[in-house]
Amino acid sequence: MIRVIGLGDNVVDKYINTKIMYPGGNALNFAVYANILGIEASYIGVFGDDNAAKHVYQTSKSLGIKLDHCRFYKGENGYSKVKLEKGDRVFVDSNKGGVSAKYPLTLSGVDLSYISEFHMVHTSCFSFIEKELAILRQYSKFISMDFSNRYTNEYLKECCKYIDCASISCSKMKDEDIITLMKDIISYGCKHIVIATRGARGALVLVDGKLYEQSPCLIDAVDTMGAGDSFITAFLTGYINDMKETVDFSVESGNKGLTKVEEYKDVVIRANLYKAAIFSSKICSCNGAFGFGKSYKE
Questions:
Q1: What is the topology classification, in CATH, of domain 3-290?
Q2: Above 60 in pLDDT, residue 258?
Q3: What are the sequence ranges of the domains in the chain?
Q4: How far is Cα 127 from Cα 213, in angstroms, rounded to an integer?
Q5: What top-level branch of life does the organism fall under (predicted)?
Q6: Hey, which of 25, 173, 186, 266 would disulfide with 9, CB 3.0 to 4.6 Å?
């Protein structure tokens, strides 16, 4: 079984209609979802010293996420303010990362040695990690980065040359425009996979030049928070775990990543896309990204 690590953002999502906050954040969600799927997961990020930070940290630790390399600073933890509209989460406001923005991660030699032990690293455009990507590339077997819908061509060009998988949120784009963007991302240097989530329209996934489409597993969603993160986590961890015996993951190989493939690759991709759609629908049946709500006061 593979081992994975989330690197970067953690937040609380504050639901303004109920005054309940839930742990979340793209990189932390990845680690938690991987853990739910039975995969050993760690997380490195920055925590504040307020009640929100304590809730996120204690919840993550109770779930079995390894947090040994996290940082702690005096100040406000990252948060977003959210409202629900017929089960669909809508972001209203945020503090733009809180202490994570004020004290962005600088990876030490100890951190990098630790990261090199994992099969996959996942980070995001909310993680303030851009300046670390070049050195991270040297120590990582597979790097995934989620750009959400917060990207420009210049930003993609800056980051994609260091990563193996890029994820983008494209619910309001036409499919032909999405496919063009996916191909552009590969041309910017992303090595192997582009995942484009389209909300209720499912996902388009480009793997080593071959395009796949996955329909959603539609349900009456309680809360769509984490729908994209859970899909990405389930697909990537399942695919990499299934392919690990035929993939060269050694740093010494020059970080070529997914280069050795077998005839069953297509079946593996399709199976894990289907599993990812089911897992994502299950996540949409709980409140917050993965539950564990707690009341808060302004």
A1: UDP-N-acetylmuramoyl-L-alanine:D-glutamate ligase (3.40.1190)
A2: no
A3: 3-290
A4: 28
A5: Bacteria
A6: 25
